Write a sequence for this structure.
């Protein structure tokens, strides 16, 4: 704006100067008119002293430099942050049950062996009890394959060996694992009694498990299976040792939970439901199972066309360390139908005879399980369990079982 005012001042000065000059020239012309005598027109030349000084010239003031307008600093836009992948928290450890079904699908080879020690009264009816010891060993390997995080297939089979109490009350009688030969005093013919000491193979169980998570800590499991009746010991007459090894020795050695796998003459359907809470190093799992047994062979020695059985269990396990868990497991079995053997046993009460308690069984399993990795990234989780009988035949025969369970998880 100052530059503009300087230009206006200069124009005004020039205008005033021109006006003054014109005024002076007019005055001079008025004084210097030609005379009548014809003198030439003369323009007087002013002396230097007569020339007025020029008006003062106002020099334009230099424009002040414009103040610098602050420019807001523009910081570069931050680069988009890379997606940070937060690893999910590790899954809560699962306490694998001892006798109940697993509820978490895995690929596994499970080597499950039990050693049962029991006592049986061999005294004749009406005489004081005479308890003799017996022993049963059962080996039940299980193969499980996980097809999907929620689906698992299972195949199970086994072998049973049984050495029952002596078949005679004679203190110096023959070994109970040898056939007994005697002579009938009436006919004078020899008679051979086959031993009930023997080994038998079980049926094959084929099934599957579906497991789903209900929230972050609860799992629901659905189980279905069937048996293939290919076990030995189908006849108590021709194979008394193998037959006795399966039932009742093999069944009772497993707390009567896996009873259909020892039913060599029956084809069975199995349906089960499991629910488990798994969090804070604690596992609480409950299960119920229904067994439907249909007679498949040996009609003469197997009077029951259909039998209905039920089992239930509760497992509680806690990880006291990363590699060690402690567990307790309550197991219950009950016949819902009325098999002939159960009815006969219950009828003994009215006759004043001892009742074995074939209707139901109750037992408790307690023990530790260790967990550690093996080469190849696999896990091995062996357990050692003690199982006393609490009710039913397991109590009347004073069952004490040791279970060695070795699952290898792939």
């Amino acid at each position: 704006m100052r530059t503009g005012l300087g230009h206006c001042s200069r124009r005004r000065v020039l205008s005033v100067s021109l006006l003054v000059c014109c005024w002076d020239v007019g005055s001079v012309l008025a004084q210097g008119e030609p005379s009548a005598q014809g003198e030439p027109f003369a323009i007087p030349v002013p002396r230097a002293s007569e020339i007025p000084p020029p008006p003062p010239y106002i020099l334009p003031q230099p424009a002040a430099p414009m103040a610098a307008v602050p420019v807001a600093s523009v910081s570069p836009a931050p680069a988009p942050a890379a997606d940070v992948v937060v690893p999910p928290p590790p899954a809560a450890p699962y306490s694998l049950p001892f006798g109940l079904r697993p509820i978490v699908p895995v690929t596994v080879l499970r080597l499950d062996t039990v050693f049962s020690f029991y006592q049986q009264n061999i005294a004749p009816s009406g005489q004081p009890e005479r308890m003799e010891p017996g022993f049963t060993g059962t080996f039940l390997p299980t193969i499980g394959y996980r097809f999907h995080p929620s689906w698992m297939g299972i195949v199970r089979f086994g072998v049973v060996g049984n050495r029952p109490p002596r078949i005679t009350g004679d203190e110096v009688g023959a070994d109970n694992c040898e056939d007994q030969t005697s002579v009938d005093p009436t006919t004078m013919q020899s008679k051979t009694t086959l031993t009930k000491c023997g080994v038998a193979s079980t049926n094959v169980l084929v099934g599957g498990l579906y497991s789903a998570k209900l929230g972050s800590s609860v799992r629901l499991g659905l189980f279905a299976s069937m048996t293939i009746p290919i076990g030995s010991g189908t006849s108590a007459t021709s194979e008394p040792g193998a037959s006795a090894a399966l039932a009742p020795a093999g069944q009772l050695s497993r707390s009567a939970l896996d009873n259909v796998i020892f039913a060599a003459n029956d084809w069975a359907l199995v349906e089960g439901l499991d629910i488990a809470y798994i969090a804070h190093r604690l596992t609480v799992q409950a299960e119920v199972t229904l067994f439907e047994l249909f007679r498949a062979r040996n009609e003469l020695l197997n009077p029951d066309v259909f039998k209905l059985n039920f089992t239930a269990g509760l497992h509680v396990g806690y990880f006291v360390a990363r590699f060690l868990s402690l567990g307790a497991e309550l197991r219950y079995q009950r016949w819902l139908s009325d098999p002939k053997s159960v009815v006969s046993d219950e009828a003994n009460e009215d006759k004043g005879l001892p009742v074995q308690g074939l209707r139901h069984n109750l037992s408790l399993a307690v023990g530790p399980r260790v967990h550690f990795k093996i080469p190849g990234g696999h896990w091995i989780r062996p357990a050692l369990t003690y199982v006393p009988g609490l009710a039913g035949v397991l109590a009347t025969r004073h069952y004490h079982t040791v279970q060695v369970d070795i699952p290898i998880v792939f």
Remarks:
- Residues 222 and 273 are 5 Å apart (CA to CA).
